[in-house]
Hints:
alpha/beta; Rossmann fold; five-stranded parallel beta sheet; four-stranded mixed beta sheet; binds guanosine-5'-monophosphate
Amino acid sequence: MARGFLVVVxxxxxxxxxxxxGGVLSATPSEFSTSATTRRPxxxxxxxxxxxxxxxxxxxxxxxxxxxxxxxxxxxNLYGTLRSEVVPVLEVGRNVVLDIENEGAKQxxxxxxxxxxIFVRPPSLEELESRLRGRGDTSDRDIDRRLAVAAxxxxxAESIYDHIVLNEDLDAAIGRVLDILAELNPDxx
Length: 189
Ligand code: 5GP
């Protein structure tokens, strides 16, 4: 059986990745890899669905045990991809989609050279700021920090990712990601 593809969908916080991923996952034989993180859940986030919310000590123990494929520190918290979310799924021929930041994407590139790396960008930083403010779950200080990180991520993106997808119109962005996946494997819808 052919192995699935590992697909990284990255982009600044607030760019609309979750909505794009929702559209992509429902249209392709793919699984979302639920990351582990040490950050606190936001309102509405469910343990085991949005993230595996774990302590820093547990996170570090999992790194030491070789259970973490890639990880990075972001906004003072650790985030990482668990091997158990990825390898068994690829082996049964399904794609695995990761929502991770740039450092993690680089690590995935070196561990899985055949992975497809997609970066979602906002129309502008101003637009990203208004989306982050509209979300209403993030403090002003956090928003400023996330915007500064977003500017860095966008500068670096060209040198890391295979594809840069503009999210101005959600359906168009989902369509573009689906086109990229269809080119990988013409047998998939
Ligand atoms: P948030 O706190 O907004 O959910 O996520 C913050 C950042 O962490 C986002 O850029 C997200 O893509 C990234 N992230 C989430 N999970 C992982 C992971 O497993 N590994 C890495 N490297 N980054 C992650």
